[in-house]
Specification:
This protein is α+β, with helices and mostly antiparallel strands and 197 residues long. It has four helices and ten strands. A hairpin with a 5-residue loop joins strand 4 and strand 5.
Length: 197
């Protein structure tokens, strides 16, 4: 009996280490791209109009809206399913990470702290301040957490305001992050547009 408990404990600890390493890699990749400019020769993600969206067809199915003219770039980080930049310079990153022990390893209300820890560990930023961290209800009725983290990009010496919405779905963490030089209303609208199907 004691052996089964110990084996379960070891399995959970091993999974936690793997998840931490994966998320650290994703966060480092996202942060490198957070303040990178969009490339002018890349096609816009949607057609002409007031807004467009990214729709994830796999599990979990969801969509995220953003302004027309947003330039899409190929996802580069593990787990990243969309990345792009709006005409106003807001960088968008959407990622999905497997978290089979989500509630045990990281409660959703700790997503902002987790983001800060990973960013600090990557050495890319400093002077972190979580200025908003609260539960929200998405437009589809789903529960999520809405955060804002202000920090200083060490490589560029610029201040970054990261808007973040995080939600668990079937053992997967969906994170929508929008990075800008200041807390823009456009970035808030983008992350809060997350809808599960």
């Amino acid at each position: 009996m004691m052996g089964n408990g110990w084996a379960r404990y070891c399995a959970v600890r091993m999974q936690a280490r793997k998840q931490k390493a994966l998320v650290r890699t994703i966060a480092a990749s996202l942060l490198v791209l957070a303040v990178a400019p969009a490339f002018a020769d890349e096609p816009a993600a949607g057609s002409e109009g007031s807004s467009t969206s990214y729709r994830h067809e796999g599990f979990p199915a969801f969509s995220v809206g953003f302004p027309a003219g947003t330039r899409e770039r190929a996802p580069e980080a593990p787990g990243e399913v969309f990345q792009g930049s709006t005409p106003d310079g807001v960088d968008i990153h959407v990622s999905i990470t497997d978290f089979p022990f989500a509630g045990i390893l990281m409660p959703i209300e700790k997503a902002a702290e987790y983001f800060v820890g990973l960013t600090e560990a990557s050495g890319m930023g400093s002077d972190f301040e979580v200025t908003r961290n609260e539960p929200i209800t998405l437009g589809d009725g789903s529960s999520a957490y809405r955060s804002e983290v202000r920090w200083r990009d060490g490589q560029r010496g610029a201040t970054v305001a990261t808007q973040l919405v995080s939600a668990y779905r079937g053992g997967r963490l969906v994170m929508v992050a929008a990075h800008s030089a200041e807390a823009k209303e456009e970035a808030a609208r983008i992350v809060e547009s997350l809808r599960f199907e």
